[in-house]
Amino acid sequence: MKTIITLSRANFRLCGLVAAVALVPAFIVMPASAQSSKKKKAEEAPKIDYSNVDPVVVPAAQLAVFTDADFERRFAESYAAETDIEPKLADPEKKQMLEVLKFIQAEKMGEAAALIEQTRTPTSSAVFDFTLANIYFQDEKFDKALTEYANAVQKFPKFRRAWRNLALIHVRNGDVVKALPALTKVVELGGGDSMTYGLMGFAYSANDNPIAAESAYRMAILLDPATRDWKLGLAKSYFKQKRFADAVALTSELIAETPDAADLWLLQANAYIGQGQAMKAAQNYEVVDQLGKTTVESLNMLGDIYINEALYDNAVSCYERALAKTPRGAAERPIRAAKVMVARGAVIEAERLLGAVEKTYGAELAEADRKEALKMKARMAVAKGAGDEEARILEEIVAIDPLDGEALILLGQYNGRKGDVEKAIFLYERAAKIEKVEADAKVRHAQLLVGQQRYSEALPLLRSAQQIKPRENIQQYLEQVERASKQRGS
Q: 404-490 falls under which CATH superfamily?
C-alpha cells in the first residue's frame, strides 16, 4: 500500500516571499534583513516528534520528514536559484518571470500558472517549467508537476532543484523506486544532504538492495545524526543482510534513547530470532505487550516461541489473546500450534486452544481448519482411550470430505483394532486411491494383513509402497515380512 503525505497550501506560505527574489539571481539580491529573518525561522523550526511513531509500519515513520517545518522551509527555498547549476533567463524572460513572481508573492498561484502557460514557448528557459511544476506541487496536482519537472530536466539536465523535487513527488506518492534515479542525480550534482541520502536509503531498501541502503543511511546519519529514522533504516538494512548482531547493537542504542518505541523492540526481537536467541526475543515481545502495542502477529510469534520452549500454557494464553483481538487473527496459526501440542502429548493445552478457536470462529471456521481440528480431536480421543468418540469424529470428517485420505486411514486403524478387518481393508483401499496418502495406506493395509499372518498378501502392498515412497524403516519391515513368509511358506 502506498503511503501518501499531504502537503497543504498553508505549508508553503514562505514560498511567495522567497520566490520573489529567487528565480532571477542575475539582477536581484535578497536584503540582509530578509536573510536574517529566514535564518531565524530556520533556527526556530520545531523538531520532529517521533514519540508516536507507528510501531509496525516503518515506512510511514520515515516519510514523516515531509511534515517537518524544516522540510517546508527547504521546499520554499527550492525556488531560490543556484547559479552554478541553474538554467539562464534571457532578458525578455526575466521580465516575464518578474510578473510571475509578483503573483506568487501575492499567493495568487492560479494567476501565476496561467501567466506561465500563456507566455512560455517550447524554447523557453527550464525555469518556467520548474516554477509551474512547483505551483502544481503546492496545489497537490502531482501528475502535472511530474510532467513539468521532467520537462525542466530534459531542457537543462543539470537542474538540481528540479531533480530533487521530481524525486520528492515520487517519494510522496510512495513510488520510492522511481525516485531513486532522480535522487542519484541530485547527489551527482552535489546536492547530497541528509534527506536526500535518507530517502535514497529508503528507496534502496524498498528495491531489495540492503548494502546500498546501508551506505546511503550511513551518509544521512553522518550529516544528520539526530534523526532517528535514518538509524532505524540502517538497522533494517543490517537485518536484511542477516547481520543480526549489528542490528541488535544499533536497536539497543535506539531503545535507550526512546524506550517506549514499540517498533524498535519488535525489530530487535526479529534480530534475536535471527541469532537463535528465542527467549531474548520473547522478552522483547513481552515489553511490547507492557507498552500496550501488541499485535496479532507479535502474540502469535510469542506463542510459537513458548511452544518451542515447551511452555504450553503460556503459548495458549498468547494464541487466545491473538484470537480475541480485533481484527482477529487467522485460525490457521493456532490450529497448527494445537497440532504440535497434540504430537508432543500436551493434550490438555491443545484442547483448550481448540476450544478457543471454535468459540471465536463458530460457524465461520473455514472447512479446512475445521477438518484439522476434528482430526486432532480424534487423536486426542485415542490418547484418552475413547475409541468410540474417535470413530464418531473420523466419520464426521469423512462425511465432510470423502477424499480425506488421512481420516480414512485413521478410521481403518480404528476398525482394525475393533476386529472389523473387512471394513478396515475397505477403508485402506479407498485411501490407497488418493495419491497423497497411497503409500501410507498400503503400509497400514499390509500391517493389518501381517497381524493375521497373511504375509504373501502383505508383500505386494509393501513393495508398491516402497516404489511410491521409499523409506528405510519400511524397507526393513518389508525384509522381515519376506523372511517370515519364506519360513511359513506362505
A: Tetratricopeptide repeat domain (1.25.40.10)
